[in-house]
Design goal:
The complex is a heterodimer of chains A (129) and B (368). Chain A has one domain: OB fold (Dihydrolipoamide Acetyltransferase, E2P). Chain A has 4 helices and 9 strands. A 6-stranded antiparallel sheet of chain A has the order 1-2-3-9-8-5. Chain A has a 3-stranded antiparallel sheet with strand order 4-6-7. The N and C termini of chain A lie close together (10 Å). Among the domains of chain B are: 136 residues, Probable tRNA modification gtpase trme, domain 1 (Gyrase A, domain 2, 2-Layer Sandwich), CATH 3.30.1360; 86 residues, Aminomethyltransferase beta-barrel domains (Alpha-Beta Plaits, 2-Layer Sandwich). Chain B is 20% helix and 33% strand. In chain B, the strands form 4 sheets. Chain B has a 6-stranded mixed sheet. In chain B, strand 15 and strand 16 form a beta hairpin. The longest helix of chain B is centred in the middle third of the chain and has 12 residues. Chain B is globular, with a radius of gyration of 20 Å. Chain B starts with 13 loop residues before the first helix and ends in a 9-residue tail after the last strand. In chain B, 46% of the residues are buried. The chains are: A alpha+beta (129), B alpha+beta (368). The interface between A and B is medium-sized, with 12 and 18 residues.
Chain lengths: 129, 368
């Protein structure tokens, strides 16, 4: 449920490095806790984000959750498919349900994130699953 | 409302919900299921087939005695004298200012016997309010702890419930009720609900609720019945524009501002809050509850601001997706001059104004 090649934030986002770019989405835990995702608000391509800056929001039927960017950088892609198919976040949170790609400014920042094992321990301590 | 640190109250179906794997949340002091399989799926089951809700957390208060009708008339805004035995009425428990202590349904069981059903989070407040303002030969009793309530809603509800009762359910009209056996237990079957669908609410003894719940689940399976939580209950009632106390109606807004003039019967005689309501009816309201749909991309949520030309004109009281209509909808109070159908305004979503338009309500109306 938590792929080993991703890094995780305490706010339940993941980032996957593809060269100097990082693909970003929310974790299985996050999509499960939200329930049916009905709306995703994403930034425009070109926007510059600092690490853990809010880059958008994901909404389920009942809840609104801010999205935090795991690493500083410029947004180079946003998954506009989610505008019409927000349910992809539930169905495939590490695949088709990705949210943005950032050109990562400082790869060293990723060292502050959790690996899969640490994230699972974090969830267990948080009372997650 | 219970103190925040008080232990959550449990309905007689609490263990059943947990066994079914429901997601439980605190609601108005109660530990309640918010969803089972998913809010969207449950919502669609109710519109297309049937859904079942535990609403045992709701409160029931009984008025018994020769002065029962007089007491109900004095406390509520609708005209309970029009009720026949078995009939049900939507009404309001009004403050001296013509605002809401609560909204409720009134049942007439006999000339000297009425029952009102109130919101879970208001039980203690309502009961104290009603007892303090009731005089004469009538006994007011809080039956909430000895009453369970299961709502079976949707176009297939009648067929499912009919399998478990000798009552002729098709003979019970909308907003009427009947006493009889359901699964062999003494019950009241009421053709009412909070979803905008046809269906029944069944009142019975708490210790019998789990057996009825399980029997309905079994009988309903071939029809596509799903157990539903408070999440779907909220999206269903919003599509049907049924007010939620604490969101759309409260002790700050009057019945007329809440667009509930149809439960205000000024000609019936004296009742609490009549004078200010009569005055407001003559003068007109300054703000009004309207239904709107989002025409821009975004979901309105309660407490979001409503603006027009950059100026604040109101606030959202309920908002969210309308799963059956594939739209995002909401309710909110706006200045009366902006309340006409077709009026365009914006809802501030994370500081961005997103376009919305006042529309006719209810948003959803079932075919009869």
């Amino acid at each position: 449920m938590y792929p080993a090649d991703l890094k995780y934030t305490k706010e339940h986002e993941w980032i996957k490095m593809e060269g100097d770019r990082g693909r970003v989405g929310i974790t299985h835990h996050a999509q499960h806790a939200l329930g049916d995702v009905v709306f995703v608000e994403l930034p425009k391509v070109g926007r510059r984000l600092k690490q853990m800056e809010t880059f958008g929001a994901v909404e389920s039927v009942k809840a609104v959750s801010d999205l935090y960017c795991p690493a500083s950088g410029e947004v180079v892609e946003a998954n506009t498919t989610l505008e019409g198919k927000p349910e992809l976040v539930n169905k495939d949170c590490y695949g088709a349900g990705w949210m943005i790609v950032v050109k990562v400014a400082d790869p060293k920042e990723l060292n502050t994130l959790m690996d899969a094992k640490a994230y699972e321990a974090y969830l267990a301590a948080e009372g997650g699953h | 409302m219970s103190a925040p640190d008080a232990p959550l109250k449990l309905t007689p179906l609490n263990a059943v919900h947990r066994k079914l794997g429901a997601k439980m949340v605190p609601f108005g002091g109660w530990d309640m299921p918010v969803q089972y399989s998913g809010i969207l799926e449950e919502h669609k089951a109710v519109r297309g087939a049937a859904g079942m809700f535990d609403v045992s957390h709701m409160g029931e208060v009984e008025f018994r005695g020769p002065a029962a009708l007089e007491a109900v008339q004095r406390l509520t805004s609708n005209d309970a004298s029009r009720l026949q035995v078995g009939q049900v009425q939507y009404s309001a428990l009004t403050t001296e200012a013509g605002t809401f202590v609560d909204d409720l349904t009134v049942y007439k069981f006999a000339d000297d016997h009425y029952l009102v059903t109130v919101n879970a989070s208001n039980i203690d407040k309502d009961f104290a309010w009603m007892r303090e303002r009731t005089r004469g030969n009538v006994e007011v009793r809080n039956l909430s702890d000895e009453t369970a309530l299961i709502a079976l809603q949707g176009p297939k509800a009648i067929e499912i419930l009919q399998k478990l009762t000798p009552l002729d359910l098709s003979g019970i009209k909308y907003y009427w009720s009947a006493r009889g056996k359901v699964l062999g237990y003494d019950a009241v079957a009421s053709r009412t609900g909070y979803t905008g669908e046809d269906g029944f609410e069944v009142y019975l003894k708490p210790q019998q609720a789990p057996a009825l719940w399980n029997a309905l689940l079994e009988a309903g399976r071939p029809f596509g019945l799903l157990p539903c939580g408070l999440g779907a209950r909220d999206t269903l009632r919003l599509e049907a524009k049924m007010a939620l106390y604490g969101n759309d109606i409260d002790d700050k807004h009057t019945l007329l501002e809440a667009d509930l003039a149809w439960i205000l019967k000024l000609e019936k005689g004296e009742f609490i809050g009549k004078a200010p309501l009569a005055q407001q009816k003559a003068q007109g309201v300054k703000r009004k509850l309207v239904g709107f749909e989002m025409t821009g991309r975004g979901i309105a949520r309660s407490h979001y601001k409503i603006v027009k030309n950059g100026q604040p004109i109101g606030e959202v009281t309920s908002g969210g997706p309308a799963p059956w209509l594939n739209k995002n909808i909401g309710l909110g109070y706006v200045a009366a001059e902006h309340s006409a159908i077709g009026t365009e305004f914006e809802v501030l979503i994370r500081d961005n104004p997103v376009a919305a338009r006042v529309v006719q309500t209810p948003f959803y109306k079932r075919k009869r």
